[in-house]
Amino acid sequence: MSELTTIARPYAKAAFELAVEKGTIESWNDMLFFAGHVASNEQASTILAGLPTATAQAELFINLCGEQLNEQGQNLVKVMAENGRLIALPEVAHLFSALKADYDKEIDIDVISATPLAAAQQESLVAALEKRFARKVKLNCSEDASVVGGLIIRSGDTVIDGTIRGKLNRLATTLQS
To answer: Which residues, including other chains, have CB under 8 Å from residue 156's CB and lie 6 or more apart?
Structure first.
């Protein structure tokens, strides 16, 4: 996986820089998302791998995507096919999406609670998290019965454990030291 990320990163950065320059970030995001799904399709991958030349692979891939790819998207596919990198398109789409979120100052946050959060609770939580992270927050709420009370908040490497169990564990650790 890390090898694919290394391969995909320069393509994602180049596409993102072009999208920023042209003001077409959203359309590039949609285009790469679609192309990534086509590239990850098992049948499409098998057919593409069986083609003898990079040009044939690029032409078939562009035909499979149809009107979803604009001219610059088609050029990206051609370059990636020439370099034997079409398999990295799903990772390019993922990295582009991360660059877009960073550019838009957005962050996805997973919130786990014992019961569903009310709309007012979600709004309050979004306001507090936006202040803490200095970004626009998108909540992904889920329920887990093992969380007795409180919340677990995750965003990337950051984890905020506000559960009763977490507070008791921290108290026990403090008392033991």
So the answer is: 107
CB-neighbour burial class of residue 5 (10 A; exposed 0-12, middle 13-18, buried 19+): middle
Read off the tokens for 168. Answer: 């008791």
For the residues of the chain, what is the DSSP string, one character each? Answer: -HHHHHHHHHHHHHHHHHHHHHT-HHHHHHHHHHHHHHHH-HHHHHHHHT-SSHHHHHHHHHHHHGGGS-HHHHHHHHHHHHTT-GGGHHHHHHHHHHHHHHHTTEEEEEEEESSPPPHHHHHHHHHHHHHHHTSEEEEEEEE-TT--SSEEEEETTEEEE-SHHHHHHHHHHHHH-
**What are φ and ψ of residue 141, in 5° steps?**
-90, 140
Instruction: Copy the structure tokens of residue 47.
Output: 């057919």
Section 81-86 average pLDDT: 90
What is the average per-residue pLDDT within 60-85?
A: 91
pTM assigned to the model: 0.70
Calculate the CA 146 to chain-centre distance.
Answer: 27
| Residue 1 pLDDT class (50, 70, 90 cuts) | low
What φ, ψ does residue 113 adopt, rounded to 5°? -135, 170
Task: Report the alpha-carbon distance of residue 150 to residue 131 in Å, rounded.
Answer: 20
pLDDT digits (tens, 9 = 90+) for 16-44: 999 999 999 999 999 999 999 999 999 98
